[in-house]
Amino acid sequence: MLSIRLARFIARKTRVRPARMQGRGPVASITFDDFPKSAWEMGGAVLARRKLRGTYYTAGNFCGRTVNGTVFYDESDLRALGAAGHEIACHGYGHELTPRLSNAALAADRARNAQFLAPFLGGAALESYAYPHGAASVRTKKFYAPLFTNLRGVHQGINEGWIDLAQLNAMPIEKRSFSKETIAAAIAHALHNNGWISFYTHDVSDSPSEYGATPAMLGHVLDCLAEARIEVLPMREAVAVALG
After folding, report:
1. Domains annotated on the chain, with CATH
2. Beta carbons of 88 and 120 less than 8 angstroms apart
3. Beta strand 162-164 with 128-130: parallel, antiparallel or unpaired?
4. Contact by Cβ (8 Å): 46, 196
5. How far is CA 223 from the centre of its chain?
6. From the CB of residue 21, how many other CB atoms can be counted at a distance below 10 Å?
7. What local confidence, expressed as pLDDT, does residue 2 receive?
8. Which of these, 104, 153, 168, 218, has the minimum number of CB atoms within 10 Å of its CB?
9. Which of 215, 238, 67 is nearest to 165 (CA)?
10. 183 — phi, psi (to 5°)?
11. Residue 193: helix, strand or coil by DSSP?
12. 122-153: buried (b, 16+ CB within 10 Å) or exposed (e) per residue?
């Protein structure tokens, strides 16, 4: 695991696809990793009450399965969220640590996930990608960078000024670390610096996992964004706003 940690550290320090943010104002995105079923049934309901749309990073291998007690999405969930205007995004088919895969394996995994998701995209291309477990290396960043308009990691921070579209920063909404003060500071920073906040979580329920959120936690973030008048958009749309 030491080599994975080192690869992740070097990847964060190495811009592979630098871009200068030119947006005239701040923007935020709400994203769900791994796509537990509750992220749609309960998380989607929180968004719907505020007429907002999110990004669901989908790994095809999880479809219809229950893994370690987590119930994941099924095909009907994909159809429903797509019909509601949410973004279906790529999280790899096998949800594997990308630094451990060869380029040939990365290509096969991406192609398999794209093939699986194609029937639910209405002819649209997959634009957004999130590294499984947040794990990237310089090599895997270079592999994926030409294939998507934006790629997201889990390194905590706001995207501002010069950013790396091959590994965007993110802010967690997770039970294990949730802090209203941290959320407020992040929103204030984005507001002052015209930043892009990519929030992420996993499951959404009244009794979430350590990596998930309650509906109240998610609602609090959305209400704070509304109070700050920060537009909330799926990743594929937010990147266009951020780059002007």
Report:
1. 2-243 (3.20.20.370)
2. yes
3. unpaired
4. no
5. 20
6. 19
7. 53
8. 104
9. 238
10. -60, -45
11. helix
12. eeeebbbbbbbbbbbbbbbbebbbebbbbbbb
Helix (H, G, I), strand (E, B) or coil at 234: coil
Tokens (6 digits) for 124? 């649209």
The strand pair at 55-58 and 87-90 is best described as: parallel
Cα 7 to Cα 204: distance, rounded to the nearest angstrom? 31
Strand pairing class (66-67; 70-71): antiparallel
The residue assigned the tokens 């649209």 is 124
Strand ranges for the chain from DSSP E: 18-20, 27-32, 55-58, 66-67, 70-71, 87-90, 128-130, 150-156, 162-164, 168-172, 196-201, 231-232
Mapping DSSP onto H, E and C, the string for 18-31 reads EEECCCCCCEEEEE
pLDDT digits (tens, 9 = 90+) for 85-117: 999 999 999 999 999 999 999 999 999 999 999
Query: Residue 59 is encoded by which pair of tokens?
Result: 């790994």
Residue among 61, 128, 132, 63 at smallest CA distance from 101: 132
Six-digit token string for 244: 């002007």
| Residues 124-147, mean pLDDT to the nearest whole number | 97
First-to-last C-alpha distance (Å) of the chain: 39
DSSP-assigned letter for residue 121: T
123 Cβ neighbours under 8 A, 6+ residues apart: none
Model pTM greater than 0.70?
yes
Q: Which amino acid is at 114?
A: A
Computed on alpha carbons and rounded to an integer, the radius of gyration of the chain in Å comes to: 17
Spatial distance between the Cα atoms of 45 and 66, rounded to a whole number of angstroms = 22
Percent share of the chain, pLDDT over 90? 96
